[in-house]
Every structure is written in structure tokens, then in C-alpha cells.
Amino acid sequence: MAQFTLFSHKGGPNPWKVVIALKELNLSYEPVFFDFEKNEQKNEQHLFYNPNGRVPTLIDHQNNDYAIWESDAILAYLADRYDKERKISLPHDHPEYHHLLQYLFFQSSGQGVIWGQAGWFNLFHPEPVASAVIRYRNETKRVLGVLERILQNKDYLVADKYTIADVAFINWNSMLPSLFGKGRHEFKEDLPQLDFEKEFPKTYAWHKRLTERPAVAATIAERQQALQQ
Ligand SMILES: N[C@@H](CCC(=O)N[C@@H](CS)C(=O)NCC(=O)O)C(=O)O
After folding, report:
1. What would the pLDDT profile of 170-222 be if each residue is shown by its tens digit?
2. What sequence ranges are listed for the domain GST N-terminal (predicted)?
3. For residue 100, what pLDDT is reported?
4. Relative to the CA of 175, which of 63, 90, 197, 217 has its CA 20 to 30 Å away?
5. pLDDT tens digits, residue range 120-131?
6. Residue pair 56/71 in contact by the 8 Å Cβ criterion
7. Could you give the domains of the chain?
8. Is the CB–ligand 1 distance for residue 108 below 6 Å?
9. What does the DSSP assignment read for the chain?
10. pLDDT at 82
11. Best probe residue, ligand 1, of 37, 54, 108, 174 (max atoms within 8 Å of C-beta)
């Protein structure tokens, strides 16, 4: 039996960042994929573990079925409990530890939420709302600008090493083409466009560096395979 059950979704970016961390730490897991069209993520069994009814939710069968949700909190849990060698994390007494937390909070409040809205208004919102598409695309580019400034002279976000702070951002960065690509509606207004490599070269190079890691590449391949099933 796998050590963890991961309540997940085949396409959603947040569960797959947990998969990256599990692979980096050689931990075994079994996914349960929910069908959002059937609202399966709001079923009673899942709400018992995660009243927020969103994914990911991770159950640790080697810790009394400890249940934890919010993807960045899950990364911190895995790091503290299972990354004894600090392969992808920092000890709590490291001078950069609170900067690592800073980036996890920035990811969930600054990247995840805003980019999620950019995706929603581009791809799923039933009515065309040009002002919302423009607003969230501009905010997405603003956050990319913040990352670009941070990464001017460094290869990773904290402590000159790859950590869960970097892991947290990977999957939303991979979603950029769908946030700026052809959406559900046609608009007469000019929408903000994105040339990731040209406009944000340091951030693009960082993203490329991260996706070339074996655990990240394996996660991307596993997601593709899941989407095809
Ligand atoms: N801040 C949360 C966001 C979780 C989230 O929004 N997950 C999406 C999938 S990527 C979801 O479950 N959507 C379904 C819903 O909202 O019911 C996290 O990082 O875990």
C-alpha cells in the first residue's frame, strides 16, 4: 500500500506540486482524481478530511491518517517530516527559513489566487467579461514582474538552492500559455498578451531550470498520462 493518498485532479496545477515534492523525496502515493464537472471534490468523504472541498488533500497513512490540505502547507509538512537531509527545504533555524515561508505565502495569495482568476475568466466564465480578463492578465504579468526582479541575480528563490519555495510556483508557470491563449469567448477589446521568454527572461530561465529536474519532468509526464486516460 502506498504511504499517502492524494485527493487530486488531472488538470489542476495545485495537486501536482505535491506530486513533485513526493517524487523528490521518494515517497509513494496513490491518487484519487475527482471529476469537477460532477462536483466530486465536494463529496462527504472528502469534506470530512478537507472542509474547503478543494484539492489537493493529502492523507499520511504512516502518521495515523493525518490529513492536510492547502498545497503549500502540504509542502511544508512533507519537508519537515520527511526531508531530514533538507534536500528541498531549510531547517527552521536557517537565516533564510522565514523567507522560504514568505515565498510560500506569496505563491498562494499572489500567484495561485490571481492566476486562477485569469484562467477562470479566460477559459470557463459563462459570460464574456473583457474587463476581468484584462484585469487578471495584467495582475499575472505584475506578479511575473515581481518574480523577475527577485530572480535578477539568483537561480533559486531562497538560500541559493532549490527548495519547496521554487516547487510551489512551477505548475502555475506551466499554465501561462492557457491563461494567455485562446479562451472561451471572442473580445473586441485588445487583451494583454504574453511572450514569457522575451518579457521575463530570468523567470523563464528559472522555470526551464526547474522543469528539467527529473522529479519535475516525471510529474509533468505523469500528468499528461493522467489527462489522456
Ligand atoms: N490554495 C489552494 C487552492 C486549491 C484549489 O483551488 N484547487 C483547485 C484545483 S487546482 C480546486 O480544487 N478546484 C475545485 C473547486 O474549487 O471546487 C491550494 O493551494 O491548495
Report:
1. 999 999 999 999 999 999 999 999 999 999 999 999 999 999 999 999 999 99
2. 2-86
3. 98
4. 90
5. 999 999 999 999
6. yes
7. 4-82 (3.40.30.10), 97-228 (1.20.1050.10)
8. yes
9. --SEEEEE-SS-HHHHHHHHHHHHTT--EEEEE--GGGTGGGSHHHHHH-TT--S-EEEETTTTTEEEESHHHHHHHHHHHH-TT-SSS--TTSTTHHHHHHHHHHIIIIIIHHHHHHHIIIII-SS--HHHHHHHHHHHHHHHHHHHHHTTT-SSSBTTB--HHHHHHHHHHHTHHHHHS--SS--SSPPP---HHHHSHHHHHHHHHHHTSHHHHHHHHHHHHHHH-
10. 98
11. 54
Over residues 132-161, mean pLDDT: 98
Ligand 1 centroid – CA 152 distance (Å):
30
In angstroms, what is the span from residue 43 Cα to ligand 1's centroid?
15
Which amino acid is located at 66 in the chain? Answer: Y
- Measure 94 CA to ligand 1 centroid, in angstroms: 31
